[in-house]
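Example S7 (structure tokens).
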């Protein structure tokens, strides 16, 4: 009697690239692929994970791919015998040397990867805007998660300093509102002269390598944000206050010359009411509250997909 055993595919796949050379530096690229549709992994996925064969330890290794910090830490440790190890950051347009045994490189050095790895044209950059307490950060994360299975290269850039990042939105549902606000307050920063120019450069670098970048820019109309407007291509307004929508059309559309994708009237009720679809989608939907996962209406996802 033959017993068929079904073996689930590994959640993590490590792909080793061919040897490359940039400015005299030899290196291979180690690309992380997360195989689950939702691109999630668990700590026990490290058990039994090993580096692919064929790594040339006389050269460097550039690690790239979307993954938690703890996976990167594990890989940097495992790659200790190599000449140097760098981690690619698309916002910098290069790989940052994290450890080295070679006089050719130094820790903190940014190694620009070949231009051939860029897209033939800039990807779209969708600026998510609207007044405070409308659910921008929660919506941006929900949109990112909805697009990720089909478009694994989509990127969510938090161009604000309020301490609310993906990690706060991915806390377990057991986390209380007080817990979430405490984390957010602890990591809250403040505006500096170089903040938005830095974000603008990061967005442009991302657009050279990603098909779409979602940008969460915070809830105030500020002239300091003009560099970010210039770095984006489209905008989406989400607002719990109808009287505050026109100011964002003026700021993003008239001043920034960005293309409108949608206007979302944010509500605490569970609903999805389409008001119009031309010249952009206008819809009432919600709620966009931390700890309350909300499925995006398909018409809204399709409207964003059309911008790829």
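Recovered sequence:
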């Amino acid at each position: 009697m033959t017993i068929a055993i079904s073996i689930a595919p590994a959640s993590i796949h490590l792909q080793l690239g061919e040897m490359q050379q940039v400015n005299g530096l030899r290196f291979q690229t180690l690309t992380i692929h997360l195989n689950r549709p939702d691109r999630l992994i668990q700590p026990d996925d490290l058990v039994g994970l090993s580096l692919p064969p064929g790594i040339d330890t006389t050269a460097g290794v550039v690690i790239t791919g979307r993954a938690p910090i703890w996976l990167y830490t594990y890989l940097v440790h495992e790659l200790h015998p190599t000449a140097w190890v760098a981690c690619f950051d698309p916002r910098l347009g290069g790989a940052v040397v994290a450890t080295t045994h070679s006089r050719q490189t130094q820790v903190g050095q940014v190694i620009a990867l070949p231009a051939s790895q860029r897209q033939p044209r800039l990807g779209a950059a969708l600026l998510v805007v609207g007044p405070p307490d409308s659910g921008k950060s929660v919506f941006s994360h929900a949109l990112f998660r909805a697009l990720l299975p089909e478009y694994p290269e989509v990127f969510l850039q938090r161009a604000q300093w309020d301490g609310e990042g993906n990690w706060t939105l991915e806390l377990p549902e057991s986390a209380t509102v007080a817990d979430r606000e405490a984390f957010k307050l602890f990591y809250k920063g403040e505006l500096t002269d170089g903040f938005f120019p830095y974000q603008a450069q990061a967005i442009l670098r991302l657009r050279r390598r990603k098909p779409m970048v979602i940008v969460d820019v915070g809830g105030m109309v500020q002239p300091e944000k003009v560099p970010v407007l210039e770095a984006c291509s489209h905008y989406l307004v989400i607002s719990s206050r109808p009287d505050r929508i026109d100011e964002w059309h003026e700021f993003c559309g008239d001043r920034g010359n960005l293309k409108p994708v949608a206007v979302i009237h944010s509500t605490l009720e569970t609903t999805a009411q389409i008001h119009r679809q031309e010249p952009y989608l206008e819809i009432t939907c919600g709620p966009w509250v931390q700890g309350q996962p909300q499925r995006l209406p398909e018409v809204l996802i399709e409207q964003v997909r059309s911008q790829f």
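Notes on this example. Helices lie at 69-78, 136-147, 166-169, 177-186, 195-207, 226-231, 245-255, 298-305.
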